[in-house]
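testing teh design pipeline on a random one, pls ignore if ur not involved
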């Protein structure tokens, strides 16, 4: 009589065991995929034909910091009663205005608009042989027109990134003067700036929201030397500089 070993019994059912295991494994994977598919939330695409329109309009608010870039003259730190430090701290600035976005192609747009900007740029002096001079504050309102070329990424769902760069034309509209009319810091009333920034577009049901960080470097020498007061001999050039967070709605 033949003796039946346990491994022989297992050999008879090995193919059935393997096939059963594969079947249950496939069923488990299918069940998992189906469950994940049921749990997947459909993401609605808002305003999916937005890029088919050639022109878009909107408005913006800007919050930032503005100051002067100070360039010293050859008299700086010369012997005598001259300023040993001249600095321009960053002061809060605010902007509000309208914007227009013109589509050039699938990747490039042209951005412009008209903004009203409030600046409070300041100079601080410290002297060697005399008391410190009171800070000079230039509070003014500017009318600004940026002209920017925008490069945008491919839209992913309801969002995309972009970068832009260009120039900004600025015209000063009014200046807040001291009560005694003895304001000593005087600057020119027009400016041309180089601008560049990076932003993020987020589409919603009824509008597009775009936050952007933008840097602005003035190209014009805004400094006007006064006819009196020797402190001005330490300054050769003043250029405007600002960093602004824009919140745009289209």
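output:
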């Amino acid at each position: 009589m033949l003796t039946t070993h346990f491994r022989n019994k297992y050999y008879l059912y090995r193919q059935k065991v393997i096939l059963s295991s594969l079947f249950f494994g496939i069923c488990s994977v299918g069940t998992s995929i189906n469950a994940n598919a049921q749990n997947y939330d459909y993401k609605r695409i808002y305003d999916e034909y937005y890029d088919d329109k050639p022109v878009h309009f909107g408005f913006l608010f800007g919050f930032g910091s503005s100051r002067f870039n100070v360039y010293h003259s050859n008299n700086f730190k010369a012997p005598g009663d001259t300023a040993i430090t001249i600095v321009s701290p960053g002061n809060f600035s605010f902007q509000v205005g309208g914007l227009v976005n013109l589509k050039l192609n699938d990747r490039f747009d042209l951005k412009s608009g008209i903004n009203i900007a409030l600046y409070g740029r300041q100079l601080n002096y410290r002297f060697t042989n005399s008391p410190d001079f009171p800070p000079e504050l230039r509070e003014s309102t500017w009318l600004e027109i940026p002209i920017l070329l925008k490069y945008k990424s491919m839209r992913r769902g309801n969002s995309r990134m972009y970068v832009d760069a260009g120039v900004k034309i600025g015209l000063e509209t009014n200046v807040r003067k001291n009560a005694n009319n003895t304001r000593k810091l005087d600057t020119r009333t027009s400016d041309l700036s180089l601008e560049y920034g990076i932003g993020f577009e987020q589409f919603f049901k009824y509008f597009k929201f775009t936050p952007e960080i933008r840097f602005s470097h003035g190209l014009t020498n805004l400094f006007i030397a006064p006819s009196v007061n020797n402190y001005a001999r330490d300054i050769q050039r003043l250029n405007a500089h600002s960093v602004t967070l824009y919140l745009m709605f289209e």
